[in-house]
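Notes from hallway chat w/ T.B., transcribed later so I don't forget. T.B. wanted the structure written out for a chain they're using in a teaching module, and asked if we could keep both sequence and structure tokens in one place. Agreed to drop them here.
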Amino acid sequence: MKINSGIISPLIMTMRPKQWAKNLLVFAAPVAAGKILHGNTPLKTILAFFAFCFISSVGYIVNDIRDLDRDRTNPTKSKRPLASGKITTTQAIYVMVVCALLGIAAASTLTFSFQLVLLLYLAATLSYSFGLKHQPVVELMVVALGFVLRAIGGGAATGTPISRWFLVVTSFGSLVIVVAKRLAEAESLANADVRPVIKDYPLPFLRFVLAVSAAVTLTGYSLWAFSLPESRHFGQMSLLPLCLGLFRYVWLVEKGFGEVPEDLLLRDLVLLISGLATAVLLLMSMY
């Protein structure tokens, strides 16, 4: 395959590197356990991060190929390299194969448990692209599962035990992001053609699931924070900026800004400050 300099950027963009920020979840388990600086844990975590980056790109490319016709009718998604015609389907497949090989190479250096988690993640991603994304409620759980598996993968790669509270917060926190995105999409009629399942979601239902998910997330986090020893009071204090960030996120979604969560999380100053404050307090508590 001949590659000229003009399509290097589209080839990279079809991997959706902006979405790789989601894979930072692999750092969550070793950081929360206070083990991120122990031994070769940093290296293993970084390898797990890149393994998820490349394998997630495989899923994104498969999804883009299957949704090509629909994406071309959407004002936003029609600008993607494949939908806009900047690269061909064949070129996208070449990129997908390279990503798969790089992901396998990174995963091969890690534990068998991590490899199983990564394989489960890929299976969930592909099953979503090949049909589950059209199943109401099921598709919410599959997308949320992707976030949870990233977090579990970080623990599996580094041998870090994962607590029940960690799983509760990760699972329902993921649902908050996924349901908020669907709510924002449901309020925009233009997205019904690109994501047909949106038509099956009444707005009151999505708001109900969002409220329940947010409540369980805060409850789980609170129970974890206040189960810490008194000497780790910074962990308890982190509940305040977490609440601020969560409430701010839901408010922004209701204002119509939730269709692209990764952009929202990086561009809103209040979300950035609350996220950084939560992270700093947790690090101070752990280290």
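Follow-up for T.B.: The longest helix spans residues 41-66. Might be a good example for the class.
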